[in-house]
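On clarity, I found the account of how folds are encoded harder to follow than it need be. Since the whole study asks how a given chain folds, the encoding of that fold should be made plain. For illustration, here is how one protein appears when written out as sequence plus C-alpha cells:

:::
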Amino acid sequence: MATELIAALIGAVPVLLLPPEQAIAGAVFGCLLLPLIVLDYQHLWLPNRLVLLLAVMGVLVGPMLTPDIAWAGRATGMLAGFLSLEIIRQAYKFFRKHDGMGAGDPKLFGALGIWLGWQALPMTLLIASAIGLTVVSSLHVIAKHQRNALPFGSFIGVAAFAIVLLAF
C-alpha cells in the first residue's frame, strides 16, 4: 500500500511543480527510480536490468526533463557518475580487503548522470549522503540499532528525484 501511495505522489508532484513536458518526464524518472529505491532499501540490490532501463530512458526521455543539458554534459555525467563511485568502491576494497559499496551504486550514479548531467551530480551525492547520515543517526538514536550495510542507492535515488523537483 505504501509503495502505491508513493507511486501516486511521484506522478502528482511533478505535475504540480514542473512545466507540462518536464512533468511527464519527471514522473517517468520517478517511476523508474521507485523500484530501484525499494529493492535497494529492502534487499541491498540494484538489478542491472533496471539500472540499464533507467540509463536507456535517460537517453530517450532525459532531454525532456533537462533540456538545457547538452549531450556532452550527459555523456560526461554518465562517466563521471560511474567512475567517481567506482573508484571509491575499488579503493575501499583494495585497502580494507572487503566490499564497502555494492557494484550497483556506481552504475546507478552513472545512469543518473545521463538524466541530470555532470553538473547535478555533486549536489545529488551531497543530498544522498545527508539522507544516509540522517537515517543512520535516527536508527541509532530511536532504536539503538546499527546496520552493517546501508542502501546508498536508495539515498542516491531519492536525492536525484529531489534535485529534479527542486531545480526548476
